[in-house]
Amino acid sequence: MKICSVQTKPITGDIECNIADHKAWIKLAVLHQTDCIIFPELSLTGYEPELAKKLAIFPNDHRLDDFQKLSDQHKIVIGVGVPTKSKTGIFISMIVFQPNTERNTYSKKYLHIDEEPFFIPGENIKPLIINEEQIAIAICYETSIQEHIDQAIKHKATLYMASVAKFTNGIEKANHRLTEIAKTHHITTMMSNAIGKADNGQCAGNSSVWDEAGHKIGQLDNTSEGILVFDTKTKKLTTVYRQ
């Protein structure tokens, strides 16, 4: 199986433009025969908690329909980040599109204290089963919660994918934690981060892949958009930067 981690620079609050950009990345991933592509946390809006109430959408928003069409056409699993709304509040979510399957919503269960004024805890979904691999999703702060990785291991995850919005002052800690997860649990681990300004900070990029021994086998830089495509069978990593 080939899984793709994307490093994007979202346009703050512009869902339509970010959707168009996501579609371009998906088409690039398809050229590399990718089975699954995962975007950073809140990738369709940018990580802007103070704007989340205004920007939040329902998971069945028709603007996302093209993602399902691409998933069906190319037999690819797609995970995009967006704030979603319900009667009780706003969630930090990843909407997952699978071929010929109803879209699914993974909502961040474990919130950072700074997120609590703007979001409510959601519900995780079980690992995605793709070509005999089981991909466990984590959204940013969830990677620091031991119960979260324990649940992933309990469900026999073979790959741990962190969709994050890590800033320059937190990227070192995130790298250390994901290295620890890979090494301790003998699980391939990936991180998809953004670049550019967000929430009065600067996203740090450095999207990465760690092998089952905790060795970092590939990383994007901290200023460029790009993709990492990892083949779980051959262990080959392909790195592509946006020209």
Automatic annotation (TrEMBL):
GO BP of this protein: putrescine biosynthetic process from arginine
Claim: Hydrolase is one of the keywords in the record: yes
Annotated ranges, domain CN hydrolase: 1-234
Keyword vocabulary terms for this entry: Hydrolase
Gene3D superfamilies on file: Carbon-nitrogen hydrolase
UniProt entry tagged with the keyword tRNA-binding: no
Domain of life: Bacteria
Protein name per Swiss-Prot or TrEMBL: Carbon-nitrogen hydrolase family protein
The species this protein was found in: Aquimarina algiphila
